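Researcher: We're teaching a course module on how sequence relates to structure. For the next exercise, students receive a sequence and then see the predicted structure as tokens, so they can try to spot secondary structure elements on their own. Here is the exercise chain.
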Amino acid sequence: MQIEIYKMFPEESRLTITLEAVCDTFSSFLWDIEYYQCGRFEVYIAASPENIEIFRTGRIVGRNDDNAHFGLIESVQIKTDAENGDYLTVSGRFLMCLLERRIIHPTYSATTEKSYSEIVREVISQNCMNDDNRRISGLFLGEVSGECWEKTTALQISYANLMEWIYTICEKIGGNANIRLKKLPDEKYEMVFDLYQGTDRSMLQAENPHVIFSDAYSNLLSFTYVENASVQRNFAYIFGQGKGEERKRTTYYSDDEPEYLNRYELYVDADDIAETVYKDGETIPIPKEKYIELLKTRGSERLVLPQTASESEIAPKSTQYVYNKDYFVGDYVTVQHKRFGLTQEKIQLVGMIEAFDKNGRSLTPTFKKG
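Model: And here is the predicted structure for the students to work with:
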């Protein structure tokens, strides 16, 4: 495995990205892919004039064996030590962090139902592509795959951080957003924004080969399980614009209305959802029933499921299931710990920390009940 470092050159409305260097000697390397939040990386490497010149903030870090994930160097720390030597700690997040630099402005409003993919792509275009001063140079819309992105909704959003809002949508519908580099014919690259969905490889389906991590199969080296019901919120009171008794309001819950001890309520202040939209030079009022639907959508985004998660260490050299070949971050798998009689028949792999150091390679996944 080699680390690739790319240099970015702004050129008016576009960005030129070229491969600057390749590195295969480092003390340690962390590559943390996350499904519902921005991934991160860290390189710990000997400090030398060469490496200091190569690893600069603002440059892109990739891997020769991963064409889907690329990191942006955000921090470089030099530490000198007469006894242990001089080292660089280079760290940053994946390219989705570029969207954290934008808020959603002006207000985006979809009063008639649209697919989530169409909504997200329109918001990206509005805030990253259409305005010269706000453009993220070199960013283009890419592929959409997965049934979750075909679901439809009506919503209104304004002034939210763009990256955080996209991950909120991803967690709500079970999808993922990612920015990758695409190689062009002239040995240059462009950034591509993709939407996709993980694959069900659990024992509850028959379409794909099963992926089962178990102490009985010797591919589950360690196992931690956490269940926390106190954080859940399953019934929302949503209040929109207006004052006193005139304030627009509604409620939202999934499936059957929760009752008695199974009911966990929350208040959602949606005063930022306007009762009018600006279109073709006119201010048009939103019909009451459509406004209520906008409130319900906001409420659905604020519900919180019971927190069920587990962290494990997977045997990295197991030939039974090969990471990024037989299963990927975002997939649903089965996790068993037979000694404790615990089976999670369908649980989502939401994160994977891949670490390389003097002891070799390790895989530390994070699972979350979908």
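Model: If you want an answer key for the exercise: The first helix runs from residue 49 to 54. The chain has four helices and 23 strands.
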